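STRUCTURE:
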């Protein structure tokens, strides 16, 4: 089995956030790899990784980074694959705003799809949606996931009707 999605993080201190992406991909039965690479500490490794990803069968890259958060952009500069950036609120960030802006404000020609702060699960969901374009099996699992989200809301509204307030009139 070869990975279709690559999850990259600036350091293993980001793992607690990026595990949400790994967990969702695992749930959706999508083969993935997960690595720590630093745009600042291992720039050559990052460049080599990004340049080889497509030839290794990777279809989508999820890159999480905190602080200056250059990793997603550096990867996007070296590959034609879609890169999904996850800004991470790290110990050296300015409440994560610096990470968001570092990933969001990419120059023209080097796009990175940017998720919410610590939004690794949404990054995985988006990666699955990208893969769904060319794989009917993945598309079916993605549609099932979305329908389960709708079912949760329907069930929650039924439960809200039973709260027992005297003037509650949810019909």
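SEQUENCE:
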């Amino acid at each position: 089995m070869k990975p279709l999605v690559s999850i990259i993080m600036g350091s293993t201190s980001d793992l607690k956030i990026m595990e949400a992406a790994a967990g969702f991909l695992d749930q959706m039965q999508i083969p993935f790899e997960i690595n720590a690479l630093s745009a600042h500490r291992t720039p050559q490794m990052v460049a080599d990784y990004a340049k080889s990803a497509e030839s290794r069968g990777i279809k989508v890259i999820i890159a999480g980074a905190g602080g200056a958060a250059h990793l997603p952009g550096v990867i996007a500069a070296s590959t034609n694959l879609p890169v999904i950036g996850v800004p991470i609120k790290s110990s050296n960030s300015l409440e994560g705003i610096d990470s968001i802006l570092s990933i969001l404000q990419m120059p023209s020609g080097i796009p990175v799809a940017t998720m919410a702060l610590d939004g690794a699960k949404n990054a995985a969901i988006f990666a699955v949606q990208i893969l769904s374009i060319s794989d009917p099996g993945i598309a079916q699992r993605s549609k099932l996931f979305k329908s389960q989200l709708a079912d949760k809301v329907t069930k929650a509204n039924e439960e809200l009707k039973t709260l027992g307030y005297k003037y509650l009139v949810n019909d």
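REMARK: The radius of gyration is 19 Å.
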